[in-house]
Amino acid sequence: MAKIRTRFAPSPTGALHIGGLRTALYAYAMAKHSSGDFILRIEDTDKKREVPGSKEKIKELLTLEGLKWDEYYEQSKRVEEGIYKKAAEKLVAEEHAFYCQHKGRNAKEEGYSKELRDSCRDLGLKEGAIKLKVSDGEKISFTDFVLGKEVSWDTSTVADTTLLKSDGFPTYHLAVVVDDTDMNVTHVLRGHDWMPSTPVHLLVYKYLGYKVPEIGHLTDILDPEGGKLSKRKGSTSLDGLLSEGYLPEAILNFVMLLGWAPKDNREQFSLAEFVKTFDPSGFQKSNPIFNKEKLDWFSGEYIRRTQNSNLKSQIWEFLGKKYPAELIEQTIPLVKERMKKLSDYWSMAGFFFEEKRPDMALFGSDYKKHLTSAHEALLRIDTWNKASIDDALMNEVKDNLFNTGDFFMDLRVAITGGKFTPPINDSIVILGKEETLSRIKKII
Ligand code: GLU
C-alpha cells in the first residue's frame, strides 16, 4: 500500500479554532499511525482575506500542540510556478472550462435555462477568468471515509465555478485539486462545511484525469446551547482557550474525542498514545458537543499530573513572569487539587502576592474579638511553623470558648480577603509572621 500522506490546509484568515485543530490532529494521527507524512499547506491565494500574522500563529500553535509537519507549502508561492494556470488552460483546451469576462451580463439575460450555467460558456473568449464547464444530468459521487457512505450529486445542481481568477490566482477549488495531486495526498480530511465544494473538485479531478484521493468530512462541532459552534460566541479559538488558562495537552486530549472514539471507553491520551491507538473506524457519525465542563475536567486532570516544578513555570509565565517563582512553587501544593486551569491559581492563591481588602460583610459578628485574640496568640510565637501556629490558635479558641468555625473563618477572611481559599494555617506559615500580623491588625 502507498504511504499515507495527509495534509492540514488552513487559510490564514484568522485565529486557529477548535475545529481546525481537530482536523489537523486527525490528519496528523492518520499519517503518523502508519509512519506516513503530514503536510502543512497554507492556502493563501485569496490575498484580500489574509490576516497578517495568522500564518505564523498557526505554525506556533501547531508546534505548541506537538503536531509536527514533515513538509510545508504556501500556495501563493506556488502560483509563480505556473502550475495552477497550466491546469486551468488544459481544461480550456479540452473544453471542460472556458474564459469569462463578465461585463454586466448574466445567465438570465442570455436566456440560459439554469442560473448555474454561466453566460460566457459558449462565447469562445480568449482571456479572462477561467470557469469550469459543468456537465448537466451526470451523477457524480465518492465514498466519504469518515461518514462511511457514498455521497452523490446530480451535476445539474453544480454551478460553473471559477477556477482561475483573471489575475492568474487560482481559487480554492482548483488549487486544492492541483496541490493534493501534486503532493501525493492520499487522504483528504476536512470539516463538514466543505462538502458542497466536493462535487466541483470531483469534476476537476475527472477532467484533469487525476486520481481522486480518499476524502472524508468531519462532523460539525455543536454548541451546547444548540446549533453549530460559532466563532462569534465565546472563545473557541485555541489562543482564547490558552489565555483562559487551559493546558495545551488538556485541550488536545479534549479535541481528540470530539468526533472520534476508541474501542474501549478510555478517555485520556497523550499525543503519542493517541497516534498509536488511532483508527479511522473510530470516527463518529453524530455531531459532538463542545462541552466546556468536560474540558475543565480534562484540564484539572492534567494539572494534577503535572510535576510541581513544571507547573510552577507554567503559572509563572501565565501570570506574566512578574511574581516570585519560589513562592509560586511553595504554594502550589495548597491549591493544586482544586485547580482546573492556570487562571484558577490566581483566584485561589493571589493573596500570597497581593493583599486583598476583604468585604466587611464577610466577617461574622464576633470578628473583632476573634482577630484580636488571634493577633495576640500569633505575636507570641517564636518558632513560626505549622505546629506552633496550630497550637497557639487552638488554645485561643478553647480558652475563650470561641466557635471554632467562626474563629477560623474570620481569620481566613482577614488574611486572604475571601472565604474560599487554601487551608488557612498552612497559608499563614508561608505568608510569614510579619505579613500575617500586619493584615490582621489592619482589619482590627
Ligand atoms: N483552505 C481550506 C480551509 O481553510 C481547506 C479545506 C480543505 O481542507 O480542503 O479550511
How would you describe this structure to a colleague?
This protein has 444 residues and is mostly helical. Among the domains are: 98 residues, Rossmann fold; 82 residues, Alpha-Beta Complex (Glutamyl-tRNA Synthetase, domain 3); 44 residues, no CATH class; 84 residues, Arc Repressor Mutant, subunit A (Orthogonal Bundle). The protein is 43% helix and 11% strand. It has 18 helices and 10 strands. The strands form 4 sheets. It has a 3-stranded parallel sheet with strand order 1-2-3. A 3-stranded antiparallel sheet has the order 4-5-8. Strand 6 and strand 7 form a beta hairpin. Helix 14 packs across helix 16. It is elongated and about 100 Å long. The N and C termini lie far apart (79 Å). The site of glutamic acid has 8 residues, from helix 5.
Please outline what is shown here.
This protein is mainly alpha-helical and 444 residues long.
How would you name the oligomeric state of the polypeptide chains in this document?
single chain
Q: Tell how many strands the DSSP assignment holds.
A: 10
Classify the beta-strand content into a percent band: 5-15%
Would you state the CATH class of the domain at 5-67 and 184-218? Alpha Beta
Instruction: Quote the average pLDDT.
Output: 94
Radius of gyration, taken over Cα atoms and rounded to an integer in Å: 31 Å
Q: Strand count, sense and closure of the main sheet?
A: 3 strands, parallel
Q: What structural class do the secondary elements suggest?
A: mainly alpha
Question: Which outline best applies?
Answer: elongated
> Which topology of the domain at 5-67 and 184-218 does CATH recognise?
Rossmann fold
SSE pattern: EHEHEHHEEEEEHEHEHHHHHHHHHHHH
Write out the strand line-up for the largest beta sheet, numbering strands in chain order. 1-2-3
Total count of helical runs of at least 4 residues: 18
Distance between the termini: 79 Å
CATH superfamily label of the domain at 5-67 and 184-218: HUPs
Approximate helicity band? 40-55%
Looking at the overall shape, the CATH architecture of the domain at 5-67 and 184-218 is 3-Layer(aba) Sandwich
List all distinct small molecules, including ions and cofactors, that are bound in this structure: glutamic acid
